[in-house]
Amino acid sequence: MTTYYVYILKCADSLTYTRITNNISRRFKEHQKGLNKNCFTYNRRPLELIFHQEFNDIEQAISFEKKIKNWSAKKKLALANGNFEMLQILAECRNASHSKYKSIKE
After folding, report:
1. Where is the GIY-YIG domain (predicted)?
2. What share of the chain is helix, strand, coil (3-state, %, to 5)?
3. Quick one: what percent of the chain has pLDDT higher than 90?
4. What element of type H or E holds 97?
5. Cβ-proximal residues to 48 (8 Å cutoff; 6+ apart), any chain
6. Is the dihedral of CA 90, 95, 96, 101 positive or negative?
7. Residue scoring higher pLDDT (92 or 49)
C-alpha cells in the first residue's frame, strides 16, 4: 500500500508551501537542493519541514491538501505547532455580516 503525505514547509522568508508527495524525505531533499529553479521554494531556501500528515488514501490526502493549501500562514503554523485552540480562533469568521454578529429578531 502506498503512503501519501501532505506537508508544509516554512521558507526562509517565513512564507509557507503546502503540497503532497508519496516520499517525504526524498521530496524535502529535492526542495533543499533546489533541483527545480521554477519551484516556489527555490529562492526561499533554507526550508524547514514544519508539518506532515500521513494518508493511506490518495483521495483523502488530496482533499486535505486542498483544504489547508490556501490557509493563512498563521493557521498553518498553528496546525504545525499543534495549537488547536489558536487554529479554531483563526478559523472563525470575523466578517460583520456573519450570523454571529447579527442581532436576533424575535
Report:
1. 2-78
2. 40, 20, 40
3. 78
4. none
5. 9, 10
6. negative
7. 49
